[in-house]
Amino acid sequence: MKFSHGLQRRLRVLLGLMVLFCLHRAEATDAVNPTLQIPRPGDNALHILSPTVLELMRVNTKQPSPAHVDSWDWVDTNGNFAPPDMSSIRVVINGQTNGATAIGFKRRPLYAPQATWDLRIANNLYLQLSNQISDGQSVRVINGGTLWPTNMAFAATADPLRYTPAIHVNQEGYLPAYPKKAMVGYSLGSAGELPISTNTFFWWTRKAARRYIKAH
After folding, report:
1. Rounded CA gap, 163 and 203, in Å?
2. Model pTM?
3. Is the peptide bond prior to 66 cis by the omega test (within 30 degrees of 0)?
4. Residue 26: which residues within 8 A CB-CB, separation 6 or more?
5. Which candidate, 14, 71, 128, 198, has a CA 20 to 30 Å from the CA of 60?
């Protein structure tokens, strides 16, 4: 069977999209990173928002009201953060235990289809560290099993090129000859906004070439 040149090109594009879709589904999903796969209850991630602020993200669910969420039920009837006992939390940086305090909590729906009940909820716990995290250091947040199962891993590495939800760029792209602007800011839920120093700088890079340019 012969196909026209235009139809052959469309079929190649469709095949390429199907391959990309399969690759995305095969990747380990991050509960916050945008992928083609919708996060599922039980997914979790650790994000290093700044050298002293961590975000623990966990996806859970709930049945229709008056049921409560099935985990991290830390919001009272007035919508306020009601923190549990956080004394069992330990932040391990390159094998050394560091002190941390809970500073905030945020909850928002991720997925709520109309045809069937399948509510998926993002829960974010924010921790303030007593010591700074340096580039290249590994970070793990553990607990005694009272706040989350001990086999649920919250771990990350302070890679300078790591993903962060605090940097917002134009999702449609930028024109080569025009300024490239981004915004830095992030809500810590009950703790307000992520503190951003006004006298620091950031780096932007072309990923393929790994070239860095210092910008204020």
Report:
1. 13
2. 0.78
3. yes
4. none
5. 128
Which residue, 108, 160, 107, is CA-closest to 135?
A: 160
CA distance 199 to 216: 8
User: pLDDT for 150-175, tens place per residue?
Assistant: 999 999 999 988 888 888 887 777 88
CB 183 within 8 A of CB 164: no
pLDDT at 98 over 80: yes
What mean pLDDT is predicted for residues 11-18?
63
The pLDDT value given to residue 171: 72
Answer yes or no: are the C-beta atoms of 44 and 152 closer than 8 Å. yes
DSSP per residue, 60-110: E-BPSTTPPBSS---B-TTS-B-----TT-EEEETTEEE-EEEEEEEEEEE
Backbone angles phi, psi at 35, to 5 degrees: -135, 175
Structure confidence at residue 84 (pLDDT): 87
